[in-house]
Amino acid sequence: MIENSQPKPETIQPSASHAKKITLVTKPRKILRSVLAGLTIVTIYSLATLNNSNLQLSEAFKSLGANLNAMFLHPSVGQDSWALLLRALATSVSLAMLTTLLGALIAFFIAVGAARNLAPNWLATSIKAVMAFVRAIPTILWVLIYSVVMGLGASAAVVGLTFHSVAYLVKAYSESIEETSQDTIEALKASGVGFWPIVFQAILPSIVPALLSWTFIRFEINFANAVAVGAAAGADDIGYYLFMAGSFYFNFHEVGLIVYLLLAVAIVLELVSMKLRGHYLKHN
Amino acid sequence: MKTSFPSPQSFFRQRRLRLSVVLIILIGIYVLSMTIVNFQTWTSIVKIPAGIIWLFHNFIPTERSISYLGPILYQLWRTLLVSISSTIIASLFSLVFAILGAQTTTPHPVLRIVIRFGASLLRNIPVVAWAMILLFSFKQSDFTGFLALFFMTLGYLTRAFTETIEDLDAEKLQALQAVGANYFQCVFCGVLPEAASTLTSWVLYMIENNLRDATLVGLLTGTGVGFLFDFYFKSFRYDAAGLIVLLIAILVIVLELTSTMIRRAIA
To answer: Start and end of every ABC transmembrane type-1 domain (chain B) (predicted)?
Structure first.
């Protein structure tokens, strides 16, 4: 009798704790799913509790259809004149240009103080915190707040819009400045170049495309804001006429015309920005 | 071949010349806009410090303004809900439009042009105009604000989503097609999982943006926290208005920080 005294051949059994299950559901995926689920629940709750007091939705949509028809298919100048509306449109564009230029100029100097590779850390941090606070308050509230101090009209609109532009552009500019390599700055400092020459001769030329594209984005935002300011704070621009036509005279033909004018400006702005970026990208 | 470089002198002269031309044009634009808007730069700049001091005197919430906290928090909550729900509903529609309109996944090129044009139209009508258009049909209800934000967001997100999908690697789609996946399999198993985190971060950005715009829409349509601000502001209860401004700022900053955190976690 041959006894099988041989020990059992050892096989390496993977222990359960070592086995890694390969799954598609990684941690980022789980977080993504829970965020989306949370947002969906909030949406359902908010739609269920939406305050639609005494509102017949089907009738409301029917009247919306009629209004859209009046607006877009039969636009007219209404009780204002072409000259008045075009002048108001020019005011809006000018308001946007003025606040963007003013904002860009102020923001650049503040951004130099807010860039971590140029300014001391405490200064950069505190400037960034203040700017984050200014940015968090909607533009229209800044304009309304300043309209108490300066009286309703152009000055309050310009100052309020500029305030928000500065806060926005400081963030964008300082981040662009921080992308300049530290080596360049160190090398220039070591060879004895002063602070402002470094800023204007080394940093500024290398970030012009970024600055330009941020400034132009802000210009588009400022144009939309200028219209809003006219409507809500009574600056004498196209937004004011839009507001009057829409909620006082209920003249939808005029609302339609003004919307067409705004669309025309928006299209021109988009074309200009495409050209501008193409031009600068080619040069650098 | 020999390329000729300008001498340093002429290079710097040219650069200075170009710089001065640009500066003169900018100053010209500034002066022209100043006259059109009728804005006096100096007198206004001089008033800014006084304005800030006045702000600190009157807009600081006092003990009295605490009594307004209840309605303010309620309206702020409503505004937040409207901005979230309008973004989410709009993102569902934009996702469909983006899939139909992106170059890599479009079923038909004509559809692509129609969707691009429509999105551009929605995006370029300012939110004020939307508020005015909708106010007449939907009266003073949350629904007006919801729809105004919805149309704006639809325009923005459709473009953002389309670009995100077009940025994806086209070869993966081709590989899926090569092994015989049909259109829906390509979209749901190839495109969406790949793009999900970028799309979500666009949605989060739009929620932040909409919260800011919701204040403006509320101001114009008489709903939400914007209306409450207008009401306190026009009845000279500046401390209560200041409390609203402070709470909006806090909410926006908290939202920004949360979405940055989420973006980092899902990237």
So the answer is: 76-259
